[in-house]
């Protein structure tokens, strides 16, 4: 028998598993991550790639209207440009996390380079807020075997998501709104049907973007518009909008 006929499939399986571990938001192959909240009643809203002076203040006002707390994964070089905005985010009760210094694809980076990216953003946020963040999200959600261990060295827990609607795409809000429908479907299935008893199962972590990693003042007005549509509906379904810390704290409510 040609040994290649045995070797090739196993190599392909290994490549497939590696790609899964690197890309899939709920893969745990390269280290444990948080992907869900601990109660179907809790929805963790998360926003990446800020701070963004043209969008984040409006988003903070919108979240206030619904008594919503959220988590912001920030890019270090933008934190240095607008530390007051980062302070405002924290002062309003939201949680701030590390999203690296320059938003590289960490899958292609060495351990040394990953450590530098994490450390620079860690220092930027620590300087702005006076205390270090505890949560990390890799840019593009991409990991190699060194990313999560490097984050752990700085005391971080790594946060992924259950839903990534693609709000960075150049599409109208009429495209974006239905992409967020799964949150409603889960809530209707787990809360409304079971309203007489406790909420069933775990809840969603929604990944949206108030910033754009290529520029400081990216247009994320469609993200705001989609949230203006959904937040009152999700509130009326009984969802609570929580930070990632509240999402995994016990007891689940
Ligand atoms: Zn990002």
Largest sheet: 5 strands, parallel
Structural class of the helix and strand makeup?
Answer: alpha/beta
Q: Give average pLDDT, whole number.
A: 92
The termini sit apart by: 59 Å
The succession of helices and strands, N to C, reads HEEHEHHEHEHEHHEHEH
Helix content: 40-55%
Number of continuous helical runs: 10
Task: Work out the strand percent.
Answer: 5-15%
Number of strands: 8
Radius of gyration, whole Å? 19 Å
Spans of at least 5 consecutive residues whose pLDDT stays below 50 are none
Bound molecules: zinc ion
Set out the fold topology:
Layout: H1 3-23, E1 33-34, E2 42-50, H2 56-65, E3 71-74, H3 76-81, H4 83-91, E4 95-98, H5 111-129, E5 135-136, H6 147-153, E6 157-159, H7 173-179, H8 181-192, E7 205-209, H9 221-236, E8 240-242, H10 244-248
This protein binds zinc ion.
Zinc ion binds next to strand 2.
Descriptive terms for the model:
three-stranded parallel beta sheet, 13% strand, 44% helix, 253 residues, single chain, globular, binds zinc ion, 10 helices, alpha/beta, five-stranded parallel beta sheet, 8 strands
What does this structure look like?
The chain is an alpha/beta fold and 253 residues long. Helix content is 44%, strand content 13%. It has helices spanning 3-23, 56-65, 76-81, 83-91, 111-129, 147-153, 173-179, 181-192, 221-236, 244-248, and strands spanning 33-34, 42-50, 71-74, 95-98, 135-136, 157-159, 205-209, 240-242. Strand 5 (135-136), helix 6 and strand 6 form a beta-alpha-beta unit. Helix 2 runs parallel beside helix 9 (221-236) and helix 4 packs across helix 5 (111-129). The N and C termini lie far apart (59 Å). The structure holds zinc ion. Zinc ion binds at residues 48-49, 99, 103, 139, 213. Zinc ion (ZN) binds next to strand 2.
């Amino acid at each position: 028998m040609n040994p290649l006929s045995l070797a090739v499939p196993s190599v392909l399986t290994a490549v497939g598993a590696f790609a899964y571990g690197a890309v899939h938001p709920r893969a745990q192959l390269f280290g444990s991550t948080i992907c869900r909240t601990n109660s179907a009643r809790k929805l963790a809203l998360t926003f990446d790639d800020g701070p963004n002076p043209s969008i984040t203040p409006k988003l903070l006002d919108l979240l206030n209207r619904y008594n919503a707390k959220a988590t912001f994964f920030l890019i270090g070089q933008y934190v240095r440009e607008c530390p007051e905005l980062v302070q405002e985010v924290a002062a309003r009760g939201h949680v701030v996390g590390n999203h690296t210094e320059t938003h590289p694809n960490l899958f292609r980076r060495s351990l040394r380079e990953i450590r530098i990216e994490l450390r620079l953003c860690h220092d930027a946020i620590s300087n702005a807020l006076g205390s270090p963040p505890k949560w990390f999200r890799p840019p593009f959600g991409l990991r190699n075997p060194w990313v999560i261990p490097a984050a752990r060295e700085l005391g971080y827990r790594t946060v992924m998501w259950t839903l990534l609607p693609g709000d960075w795409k150049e599409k109208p809000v009429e495209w974006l709104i239905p992409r967020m429908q799964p949150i409603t479907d889960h809530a209707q299935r787990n809360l409304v049907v079971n309203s007489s008893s406790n909420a069933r199962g775990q809840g969603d972590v929604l990944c949206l973007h108030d910033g754009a990693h290529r520029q400081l003042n990216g247009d994320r007005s469609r993200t705001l518009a989609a949230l203006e549509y959904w937040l009152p509906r999700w509130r009326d379904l009984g969802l609570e909008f929580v930070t990632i810390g509240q999402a995994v704290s016990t007891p689940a409510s």
